[in-house]
Amino acid sequence: MTQPALAHATEFGRMYGRSLNDTPSVPSITTVIGMQAMDLSGWAGYMAASKLAAHPGLVEAAGRSEKLRPLVREAANAAENYRNEAAARGDRVHFYAEQVALRALDREHEVERAQAELAEHQEQRFAQAFDAWWQEYRVQPLAPEVTIWNQSVGYAGTLDLVAEISGRLCLIDYKTKGTDRNGELKAVDPKVVMQLVAGMKAEESLLDARAGQWEAWKYGQEPLLLAVAIGETGVRPMRANPSVLPQQWYKFCALHRLWERNTAAAQAGEPLLPLAPPRPTP
């Protein structure tokens, strides 16, 4: 996936500025959604235990603390390493999908480089599955990797694709997914609906990052919101249920207020100050 030019990593999460020379001023959509608490401790523990149990050096290290400790440290990082690898794979698949859209629009593209990067990591089947979906659904791209801005609430983000499918305007977010033991793609996280509805509620879209030039958002009139799961064994498009969109929007706005309060609290100063003992009584 192309790195959005206006996105910056900050101590308050990913944030966007209005131009390349502008200070980041609003959080990204994913930063806002990330304010929703998630307990991944069980999954992280399972990943660590699985990594340790499958390590080829475990038998030799058993009962020898000097050999076991390095294995434990390695296993403790299993969840983080898995997330990093999944994120890198997702970037490669997103980049390929973006290049396919650019090619369809007769714009400059790097489809061959994207294919080569997937092949280097033995991930060609993701591209094959994506191509089959693209042709079957007869996707007509309008704008890939669109950076959007909402000034009223105060956030920005980047949509993977705006397209037409069967004459219907669609806002699309790609999710790279693994395959379960039954050969089916793993389920898409329902939080993607918040992400899509926040994109739909955009007020502006970026024209020129260097000049900070924006135009009025023209794709927010009742589009179909699609989460497209891309895996090695196929593609599963899921549409957002229109009846839940108002509640998902209200929830997103509430999480945005929480981000604002957390940011303000972090900038207010040190929460705890030292206290000196009382002066001795004369």
Automatic annotation (TrEMBL):
InterPro entries registered for this protein in UniProt: Restrct_endonuc-II-like
SUPFAM superfamilies in the record: Restriction endonuclease-like
Protein name in UniProt: Cytochrome P450
Organism from which the protein derives: Psychromicrobium lacuslunae
Lineage, opening ranks: Bacteria, Bacillati, Actinomycetota, Actinomycetes, Micrococcales
